[in-house]
Structure formats: structure tokens, C-alpha cells
Here is the input.
Amino acid sequence: MSLSSSSVVSLLGTFLILSLLKRFSSFLWLYFLRPSSVYRFLHGQEPYALVTGATDGIGKEVARELYSRGFNLVLHGRNEAKLRKVIEEIGKDGSRNIKYFLASADRSDIDFAKISEQFKDLNITLLINNVGDGGSRTKRADAYSAEQLMGDVRVNCLFSFNLTHALLPKLRSAAGPALVVFVGSISADIHAPRLYNYAPCKSFLYQLTRCLNTDEKYWTPTNVSFTYMVVGEVVSNSMRSPAALFRPTSKVFARHFVEALGCGWERVAPYWLHSVQQWSVTLMGDKFVEWFAAQRMKDLLSQDLKWKASD
Ligand SMILES: NC(=O)c1ccc[n+]([C@@H]2O[C@H](COP(=O)([O-])OP(=O)(O)OC[C@H]3O[C@@H](n4cnc5c(N)ncnc54)[C@H](OP(=O)(O)O)[C@@H]3O)[C@@H](O)[C@H]2O)c1
Here is the structure.
């Protein structure tokens, strides 16, 4: 029996509609219907969340949100006075512990084993690898020294890689589920000029998430899983444009971010409008997106220069 061409077309149409419906229902479930899953990581005695780059922007607000949901905190920063001020602000009710460590993420001599040793008795169930810095490189890559660019690579991926490596045995010893998050960027999916020190690092973090997930899942499964968070524009210290529909404040974004923890997706945009943005990028075609990103990048770099001059 052979299928007529009209039956083939209607079969393909049905498949297309079903796959779109599946996608749409996953979207509704993820952002609007699903019960909160972050409480899966609140187990055992005094559970801790470790957040890197917690002195400003997204990291600071995610730390605040986690504290309000019952987590003790280990916060990372590079400036002790600034970090102590954040700790004072977040922990003013004194209901939970907040510990901290200092490290300039761009340095090559960080002793990650020592950092992990410092927290060996804590019940860490969440590791939020948030630290990152676009670096505002206004010139082409070869205008900077290899050491300057290596510093960017350390901040944007190697620090997270090494810290995760040092803390993995600790996370595996948690009595229940433990989650490692890598904070990514939508810029890894588009090709904008002057992001050579940043976007490739975010792609690395995504591949790392996938590989570490399979590593912990197969042969001898463990309690640890990994999620890569796709982030669009968010108002922060390094993104000082005004808040808008597609650019939430760090506070608003942090609420969505924390809600997405434990959702079970390997790669997720925690803010639903960033997810819509990401989807539209796939529809527009590479050439148009590249052109658009180049215009936006020009604006961002010139704004950044003005902010830095006025700081
Ligand atoms: N905001 C956005 O539009 C956007 C978009 C996509 C992805 N992201 C990602 O979101 C994450 C947070 O960014 P954000 O926008 O919240 O930035 P932010 O407000 O500038 O905060 C960055 C945090 O990282 C720390 N940090 C930066 N460089 C460091 C270094 N060399 N050593 C140690 N700490 C360092 C900062 O410390 P100081 O307070 O001492 O500066 C601060 O705590 C990053 O991974 C970024 O790539 C942000």
C-alpha cells in the first residue's frame, strides 16, 4: 500500500503540530504550573548554598533569595569590605549562618583544595557558579596580551571548573540531592563582536554541564546533577541599562532563577521572557541575529565606557 502525497503532507503536519504542542505544554509547565523544586536541596542538618560572585548583581540577589528560602550560605567575593557589607545586609535577621571566602577569580594561583578543606564539615547541597565578567574588551583580541585574555578565561570558566572539581566529593557526600549550576549567557548562542573572551567560556560551561551530568548518571549513579542557566540581559553592576520587559532587575531575575533550581532540565532560561527571546533567535536566521547583536554590542560597549569614566 502506498501513501498519497496529500496523506504524507497531513502526516507531517500532524507531527509538526504535535511537537509544537509538546513544546508549548513544557513551556507552560516549566514557567507557570510546576510546583517549586528548590526545596529538594533543603535536607540534612543546616543545608548550605555556595554562591560565587555574590557581592553584586545576580549573585547577590540569588544569595538573598536562597537565604530567605531557608539556606545557610557560603559567599564568594574578591573585595572583603564589599562582601562583609553584603553579608550584613542579607543576614540581618541572624536566622542562619553566612560564611565566606575571598579569591580574585582571574588569578592562576588559587588553592582550590584549601577552599574546599575550609568548608569540609558543611552540608553543601547547592553550588551556584555565578562569577563572570564580560570584561568590556573594546578592541580586537590581539590588542590584549595573552595573560590578560587568560585572566578573562579564568573568571568566565576555569574558576567555576576548578571550584566544582574541588567540591564534587563533598557534594556527593550530601545525604540527598545536590545541584551544581553554571551561569551561562544567551551570548554563547549568538555571534557578537568583542565577546571572544566571554561567549566561548559560556559554551564551555554548557558542554561541561552535559558531560558532568552523564558522568554522574551512568555506571555508578550519584546524587549530584548539573544545570546550565541561560541568561539574557539583566540589570546589574555590569549591565546598567534601565529595567525593561526583556531586561529584569537582578532581584526579579533571582526569584525566577531560584524557582528554576531542581526543575530537572539540563539547560534552562530561568526567566521566561529570555526563553522566548532565545526561541525567536532561532527563527530569525544567523545573518540577521549577527547584524542585530553587532549593533547592540556597539551600544553596550560605549555605555560601559561612559559608566566606567563616571565611576
Ligand atoms: N547581567 C547580564 O545582563 C548578564 C547576561 C548574561 C549572563 N550574565 C552572567 O551572570 C553572572 C553574574 O553577572 P552580573 O551581571 O550579576 O555581574 P555583576 O553585577 O558585575 O556581578 C559580578 C560578580 O562577580 C564578581 N567578580 C567579577 N570579576 C571577578 C573576579 N575577577 N574575581 C572575583 N570576583 C569577580 C563581582 O565582584 P565585585 O563586586 O568585586 O565586582 C560580582 O560579585 C555572570 O556569570 C555573567 O556572565 C549576566
Summary: Strands lie at 47-51, 72-77, 98-102, 123-129, 178-183, 224-229, 267-268. The domain at 35-310 is CATH 3.40.50.720 (Rossmann fold). The radius of gyration is 21 Å.
